[in-house]
Design goal:
Helix content: 40-55%
Largest sheet: 4 strands, mixed
Shape: elongated
Low-confidence stretches: 301-309
Strand content: 5-15%
Strand order of the largest sheet: 3-2-8-5
Distance between the termini: 73 Å
Number of domains: 3
Mean pLDDT: 87
């Protein structure tokens, strides 16, 4: 149970900071659509709908209500109209129009809290007001709810922040005589403490907690809403009480697992807090990374954190900046600090699974992260800044380049594919595992088919990504720029392809460059499969363009220099090129743009 213990430790560490935003024990969140304002004595003062961006509300929950999915199970304080509105039947229709059982259960529970030694002024105010059974009428009079003039019932098609009126969730604001007291009940620490004390007094069922080894009140109803306020999936569930009950291994849920309520609450609340603070969603997959010391972690795509004006046009500069950047994070970690990576996925709406969990020393994590960014860095064109600089790749960029299709001029993938590939690539970043060679091959095939892309910049992105991943596969041993001493057959053929592509393109009018396709690109796919045979065709069709090229002498000189590096056998070899040819193409293209030209 390493991940649960680590999350429990996060809670114990973070709860000491009142500004952390960590949920208190026995509390959860809900999206509220209506806010009702009362005074301390339970008099209605007003109401208003809540915008979606302000909807998340911290609410107290009991063991039962925190896990409710069906049946009658009221929240202790803030809840839906069907639970708290005594006059609900006058305005609602349908199977829950008669809400007497809902309302009675809510008021009975609230009254128990009100009469306890741990009560709070807000509890008394809400109870006093709701006893009058005028909530629905007050909301109608305030213009928050809309009704049919003829029937007096709620208009079925009207919604509040995307939720049907009859299903709206209500939170309370209480105006106290003491003006210094917090009026927003969902932000009131004194109300949190009041409910925690009262809730603890209602707990029983003490058993051995498998996580802490202590005898504590146990729970078998664990929280949902782990990934967001609308999430129904749970990490821990014990409702296998019919059919293949516990697969014959245990006679009951008590034998299968026993976790204390306190441990479950703290572990789940810490996870919710981390996801809200630094989680990342990839379709159904949610990823969160944290350090045991709670020190800040560098983002996976480090360049996003650097100054937008900064760029690095040489690998040594890039490596030094990367080292300094990560060193700054490393100074915040104790020697024993660990870094955890947790991936959550929901196969169904009710179950969360641990798709990925890993933990390693913070020093190893930073070293692996540095190696990843250093080994996968490539000379890339930055369209926003209109300049070339050395950068590594985000995992999303890699996946889009390898598997994406053009949609509205951009490469995009579906969520399921993101999820699958993220799980494959994260160990390469976190643990230093090799880049999957099938990914390199996929990028190779995609880059070898330029006609599959309507936008040339998308093909350029695929080429850059293919080069970066091939360099990462070779642990950074591939040079960043054109290597005059390189005699690899694939590399040299890539250089020839670059010369033919640019030489022909140079002769086009500026208005034609985005529309016309060079012969090098037209025959590119064949060239990658049968280079010697296809080069003859490309070279033959290039001649008319060379005859009118401004720098014909320079172009022919480059071609001759490359041809001289071939052996007769390597040039005549017509077998498929290796991914190295893409590096040759990219290297020599950059080399030509930076070279001094000689007139024809």
């Amino acid at each position: 149970m390493g991940w649960t213990n680590e999350l429990y430790a996060v809670y114990e560490l973070a709860c000491n900071d009142p500004k952390s935003g960590l949920l208190p024990v026995s509390h959860s969140t809900a999206n509220a659509q209506i806010e009702v304002t009362l005074d301390e004595h339970g008099h209605f003062k007003g109401a208003n709908p809540i915008e979606k961006e302000n909807a998340v509300t911290i609410i107290p929950v009991t063991e039962d209500s925190g896990a409710r999915s069906s049946g009658i199970c009221p929240m202790p304080f803030a809840d839906k109209l069907v639970y708290i509105a005594g006059d609900y039947p006058k305005f609602a229709e349908g199977k829950r129009a008669d809400n007497a059982n809902y309302f009675h259960a809510y008021m009975e529970q609230l009254d128990t809290w009100r009469q306890s030694p741990d009560t709070h002024k807000a509890v008394s105010a809400v109870f006093t007001y709701l006893q009058g059974m005028t909530l629905m009428q007050d909301l109608v009079n305030s213009g928050v709810l809309q009704t049919d003039p003829e029937t007096g019932k709620l208009l079925p098609k009207v919604k509040i922040a995307g939720i049907a009126q009859e299903d709206a969730f209500v939170r309370f604001q209480v105006q106290y005589d003491d003006l210094s007291q917090e009026t927003r009940t969902w932000m009131d620490q004194s109300l949190y403490d009041s409910f925690i004390r009262w809730g603890s007094s209602q707990m029983g069922n003490e058993r051995l907690c498998y996580a802490t080894g202590e005898i504590l009140p146990a729970t078998y109803k664990h929280p949902s809403k782990v990934r967001n306020a609308g999430d129904k999936a749970k990490l821990i569930s014990s409702n296998d009480e019919s059919g293949f009950t516990y697969r014959g291994r245990f006679s009951g849920k008590e034998e299968a697992l026993s976790v204390s309520y306190d441990f479950s609450q703290k572990m789940h609340n810490a996870l919710k807090w981390l996801i809200t603070k630094q989680g990342q969603s990839c379709g159904s997959l949610t990823l969160v990374t944290w350090a045991s010391s709670l020190a800040a972690l560098p983002k996976e795509q480090i360049e996003d954190e650097w100054d937008e004006e900064e760029s690095y046009d040489s690998l040594p500069l890039y490596k030094e900046k990367l080292r300094q950047h990560l060193l700054g994070y490393g100074t915040n970690y104790p020697t024993s600090a660990k870094v955890m990576l947790l991936g959550l996925d929901a196969a169904t709406t009710g179950r969360l699974s641990i798709a990925l969990y890993d933990e390693l020393q913070a020093s190893d994590f930073l070293r692996n992260l540095e190696d990843w960014h250093e080994n996968s860095a490539w000379m890339r064109y930055d369209g926003k800044r209109k300049k070339t600089c050395i950068r590594s790749f985000s995992l999303f960029d890699i996946i889009r380049a390898a598997y994406g299709s053009e949609q509205n001029g951009r490469l995009e993938c579906d969520d399921k594919l993101y999820r699958e590939q993220i799980l494959r690539l994260l160990p390469c970043v976190m643990n230093g595992k090799p880049v999957p060679y099938d990914l390199v091959q996929t990028l190779y095939h995609r880059a070898s088919n330029p006609l599959a892309y309507e936008q040339t910049y998308n093909h350029r992105l695929v080429i850059e990504t293919a080069c970066g991943m091939y360099r990462a596969f070779r642990k950074g041993e591939t040079p960043m720029g054109y290597d005059e001493k390189e005699t690899d057959r694939s590399y040299l053929y890539g250089c020839l392809l670059a010369i033919a592509d640019k030489a022909e393109s140079d002769t086009y009018e500026d208005t034609d460059k985005s529309k016309r396709v060079t012969n090098a690109r037209r025959y590119w796919a064949n060239f990658a499969q049968r280079p010697c045979q296809t080069w003859q065709t490309i070279e033959e069709r290039l001649r008319p363009y060379l005859d009118r090229h401004k720098y014909r002498v320079q172009v022919e000189k480059w071609m001759q220099e490359i041809m001289e590096k071939f052996t007769p056998e390597s040039f005549a070899d017509n077998s498929r090129l290796e991914p190295m040819y893409l590096l040759g193409y990219h290297h020599f293209t950059a080399y030509m743009y930076g070279a001094k030209k000689e007139d024809a």
